[in-house]
Amino acid sequence: MDIILDHIKEGLKILFVGFNPSIRSGETGHHYANPNNRFWKILHKSGLTNRIYSTFEDYTLLEIGYGFTNIVSRPTKAADEITKEEYRAGREELISKIKHYKPKFVCFVGKGVYQEYSKRKEVSWGFQELSMVPGVTDFVAPSSSGLVRMKIEEIVRIYSEIAAAVEKS
């Protein structure tokens, strides 16, 4: 399998947006499938989920209001393999998806994902002052990749901010 399907529907609490699928995700057809990726653990530790989900359960998170997509759909070993053309096309497609599905929050899993999407150079962690799509709140979180040098406690703290906002909404 090469293309990993979006798990998306109207009325989501959060749409998580990654760079693109890993090779492992492409092979399995599931989001955040690389064993070194800490995504599922981060969701649980931050309070977004009540347990650690398996990558093979990714589609079941639609039931609790969480969806998944990527700015580029082609699996690669690393994000630096993505071309400018792929980012440009993916950005346009992502904007259309967000306008159509209107999730309450869009959580960009990686600062670089949001920079490609928003075309803004200066981006901070957390909620963004100006969202790209009216009525949808943009949130920037660290990548959950095992390659990221941040301590997991710091990553979890940032994800906890969106968990608190979802709980209030």
TrEMBL record:
It comes from the Bacteria. Residues 7-151 form the Uracil-DNA glycosylase-like domain. GO terms for molecular function: pyrimidine-specific mismatch base pair DNA N-glycosylase activity; uracil DNA N-glycosylase activity. Coiled coil: none annotated. InterPro entries: MUG/TDG, Uracil-DNA_glycosylase-like, Uracil-DNA_glycosylase-like_sf. Keywords: DNA damage, DNA repair, Hydrolase. Pfam families: UDG. PANTHER family: G/T AND G/U MISMATCH-SPECIFIC DNA GLYCOSYLASE, G_T MISMATCH-SPECIFIC THYMINE DNA GLYCOSYLASE. This is Mismatch-specific DNA-glycosylase.
